[in-house]
Amino acid sequence: MNREPFYSSPSTSASGPPGSGVAHKFEVVFQAPPTNERILLQSATDANAATMAFHEALQRLTTQRATGELVVLQHHEAHPPILGQPLGHAGAKSSHLR
User: What per-residue confidence (pLDDT) applies to 96?
Assistant: First the structure.
């Protein structure tokens, strides 16, 4: 599996690239088994950009037949993921809102 980060697409350009000084409130993260290592795929300034990045990552990871879990986390918050999707598991058809 290719573990390169996703770069901002035109639909998420408002989130600003990392290091741009724009606060990134949300993170789209892939958790890879067996260690559940968290791989940051995209940061976003708002929920809309995070949702778009989540769906773009979901499409790409599904095409690559990745196994793990794709989640959206609220940066600097000790809360569970606000959106999650298991990948490569039986019955993994719909996103889970939390």
Answer: 52
- d(Cα 65, Cα 11) in Å, to the nearest integer? 24
Residue-wise pLDDT tens digits, 85-94 = 999 864 444 4
* Token code pair at residue 11: 């639909």
Distance CA 38, CA 98 (A): 19
**Count of Cβ atoms closer than 10 Å to residue 46 Cβ:** 13
What kind and span of H or E run contains 8? none
Residue among 66, 68, 40 nearest 53 (CA): 40
Sign, CA dihedral 54-58-60-64, equals positive
What DSSP designation does 72 have?
E
Burial class (CB in 10 A: 0-12, 13-18, 19+), 62: middle
DSSP secondary structure letter of residue 47: H
Q: What average pLDDT score do residues 15-26 get?
A: 65
Categorise residue 90: left if φ over 0, alpha if ψ from -120 to 50, beta otherwise: beta
